Amino acid sequence: MDTVQVSIWVVGTLVFVALLFDFMNGFHDAANSIATIVSTRVLKPHQAVIWASAFNFLAFFLFQLKVATTIGKGTIDPSIVDYYVVFGALVGAIIWNIITWYYGIPSSSSHALVGGLVGAAVSKAGVDGLITAGVLKIVAFIFVAPFLGFVIGGLLMVIVSWICRGMAPRKVDKHFRRFQLLSAAAYSLGHGGNDAQKTIGIIWMLLIATGYSSSTDHIPSWIVLACYTAMGLGTMFGGWRIVKTMGNRITKLNQARGFCANSGGAVTLFLATAFGIPVSTTHTITGAIAGVGSTRGARRVRWGVAGGIVWAWILTIPCSAAMAAIAWYIGTLVL
């Protein structure tokens, strides 16, 4: 009886830690959804985070759970998953998120979680604990997602510039202030749809491994609802340290450029989520913003800032993996 009670306590604690990570994911990545509409003054910051968090949650009703399935079954061998692996993965990801948030670095919460899973799994079972094809697909999209965002965002900017070529700038801004609300809503839907599902996959993996869920095909509805809620609440509190970097340091945005950046990012996220590919919303919107800026000439993009962000992308998986390995070891001693 005591063993069962302890097991329930440990699992409940880890579910709480997973939801805390989901909250921090929304908090850390809020800048991805709101930076453009805040920097172009379409909405005030407190209005923007409420707008974004609402659409984060509404993604609950729109997307299939393909990304959750990829995380739950496609990154590490399910047979090695236990309390310690999940604990190490979550702690490693959370610590990396706190560090990058503190320094205002727009890194990827998604890849921090993947790095955490990799680090904890390798610590327990070596490289044989990894599902290589799944991990490599996620690593490939470190480059594919921002490239798609760059191309789609830049293409949309070219189309918008051509359509609006004879319009007065003030009239263009007036129209795109409204359109930016729609594009920010679309991006927030994509953000919720892709990112919340990663934590859904972690909790589902944990419950299957510990015997609290017998279904390997159906994810309990309470997990889905809890994760989307945590993501939305995190976004509502907003990671303000990163907004300035995303909104103006990469390139200067106006209403039309902000609309194209968010729209390009949203299209990329919708495509990735439809195919069950966990991608970084941070990478995606950074690529889209750079793509929009590049249509005005390469000098309009601050490539030094973008380069610094790319270094954070490269370091995220190995750093969070290392932290997760340490957390896994500590977990085996204290849990």
TrEMBL record:
The protein's predominant localisation is membrane
Q: Name one Pfam family in it.
A: PHO4
Looking at the UniProt entry, the stretches that span the membrane are: 6-27, 48-71, 83-105, 138-164, 221-243, 303-330
Q: Does the keyword Cell inner membrane apply?
A: no
Topology of the protein relative to the lipid bilayer: Multi-pass membrane protein
Q: Which compartments is it annotated to reside in?
A: Membrane
From the Swiss-Prot or TrEMBL record, give the protein name. Inorganic phosphate transporter
Does the record carry Signal as a key word? no
Which source organism?
A: Dechloromonas hankyongensis
Keyword list, A-Z: Membrane, Transmembrane, Transmembrane helix, Transport
